[in-house]
Design brief:
- The structure is a single chain.
- This protein is mainly beta.
- The protein has a single domain, classed as Porin (Beta Barrel).
- Helices cover 9% and strands 57% of the residues.
- It contains two helices and eight strands; from the N terminus they run αββββββαββ.
- A hairpin with a 4-residue loop joins strand 4 and strand 5.
- The chain is elongated.
Length: 207
């Protein structure tokens, strides 16, 4: 909680130097796996994503880290020896990514957006040492409002306190698709198609 307070103060003070602002977001959701990668992990994965971003007009730019992980990496639907037949754990796929969003306001507090993403991913478990580039796209909706930074200590204060440093906070829902081509130690590649639904929160000067 202390780190959120420090982050909120820094972002609130930064608002005097920027036309729009900076923000932090984190989200959780579910990922569905298709293509060759489905042979090395669960068909449905748990997703976690954190991002730092900058808002300028109707555009936003994010740097993020995302992880798509099996709930139980050692559970195997297909046999007793683990994924890929060698006792390996189900693969987790993580990536670092850069995202560009175009946002369209619907009302004062509600916005829709579309986005494009490019990144670099890596796998472990049954695909240990496999890594490669990724491309993706998606769309989402976000509901946001402006209030007191004191809400980081106790959320009702966000709406009740109208003086002192202010911040923007909100929630979002994102529907996305990513394609990875993962290259291993041998001259072989594994393709991965991921569709995911992520919900989360964001705080900052604007987003």
């Amino acid at each position: 909680m202390r780190s959120f307070v420090i982050l909120g103060v820094v972002l609130a003070l930064a608002s005097t130097a920027a036309a729009d602002g900076f923000y932090y977001s984190e989200g959780f959701g579910a990922t569905h796996v298709k293509d060759e990668y489905a042979s090395y992990t669960d068909s449905n994965l748990f997703r976690f994503r954190v991002a730092l971003g900058m808002r300028r007009g109707q555009w936003a730019y994010e740097g993020a880290v995302a992880v798509n992980a099996p709930v139980d990496p050692y559970y195997d639907d297909y046999g007793p020896r683990g994924y890929n037949g060698y006792g390996a754990a189900a693969s987790t796929l993580g990536d670092v990514e850069f995202t560009v969003k175009y946002l369209q306001p619907i009302s004062r507090h509600l916005e829709l957006y579309v986005r494009g993403t490019a990144g670099y991913g890596w796998a472990d478990g049954a695909l240990n040492d496999f890594a490669g580039r990724s491309l993706g796209f998606g769309a989402g909706i976000q509901l946001k409002g402006r209030g007191s930074i004191a809400g980081l200590l106790f959320w009702p204060l966000f709406f009740l306190v109208k003086t002192g440093p202010m911040m923007t906070a909100g929630i979002y829902l994102d529907d996305g698709y990513d394609f990875f081509r993962l290259h291993g130690p041998a001259p072989v590649a594994v393709d991965a198609q991921l569709t995911h639904l992520t919900g989360g929160v964001a705080v900052g000067t604007d987003f």
